[in-house]
From TrEMBL:
The lineage of its organism: Eukaryota, Viridiplantae, Chlorophyta, Mamiellophyceae, Mamiellales. This is DNA-directed RNA polymerases I, II, and III subunit RPABC3. InterPro entries: NA-bd_OB-fold (IPR012340), RPABC3 (IPR005570). Gene3D superfamilies: Nucleic acid-binding proteins. One of its GO terms (biological process) is DNA-templated transcription. Belongs to the eukaryotic RPB8 RNA polymerase subunit family. It comes from Mantoniella antarctica. Coiled coil: none annotated. It is found in: Nucleus. SUPFAM superfamilies: Nucleic acid-binding proteins. PANTHER family: DNA-DIRECTED RNA POLYMERASES I, II, AND III SUBUNIT RPABC3.
Length: 151
């Protein structure tokens, strides 16, 4: 679902619902692993710092993957922009920056899926979705994940 969200370049966007939390037990005090499913049958596991962002089973949220926070899609340089100008992050509640370290195609019962793994400084995300929806996400990409709850 690559699109131009808020004028910037979005590599992936979908709506998810939390269906489980810490299914394998809680490993860290401030981090929980959430299992989520989307309206388009995508599956998501994502680590969230629950000390600063609360999610509960049944919570619905929008998730976006974007290579830049710039509203016009301009690539970022290595320094943090402290100018305070508007960015894609302004429309979201929780933002992390990380790197795609694994991408593979899967075939389960004749249904094609692509799976990507992204590390956000040790917090992990695993996303399985239709390959067309993940075509703009490649190994070694550096991406932002942006999350906003749907009320």
């Amino acid at each position: 679902m690559a699109s131009a969200g808020s004028g910037g370049v979005v590599a992936y966007e979908d709506l998810f619902e939390v269906i489980d939390r810490d299914a394998d037990g809680k490993k860290f005090d401030k981090v929980s692993r959430f299992k989520c499913r989307s309206q388009f049958e995508a599956e998501l596991q994502i680590d969230i710092n629950v000390d600063i962002y609360k999610l509960e089973i049944g919570t619905r949220f929008t998730l976006v993957l974007a290579p830049t926070l710039s509203l016009d899609g301009t690539p970022e340089d290595a320094s943090y922009d402290q100018s305070g100008k508007e960015s894609l992050a302004d429309g979201y509640e929780y933002v992390m920056y990380g790197k795609v370290y694994k991408k593979e195609d899967e075939n389960s019962g004749g249904i094609q899926k692509a799976a990507v793994n992204i590390s956000f400084g040790g917090l992990l995300m695993h996303l399985r979705a239709d390959p067309k929806n993940l075509q703009d996400v490649d190994i070694d990409n550096r991406l932002y994940v942006l999350i906003r709850k749907i009320s």
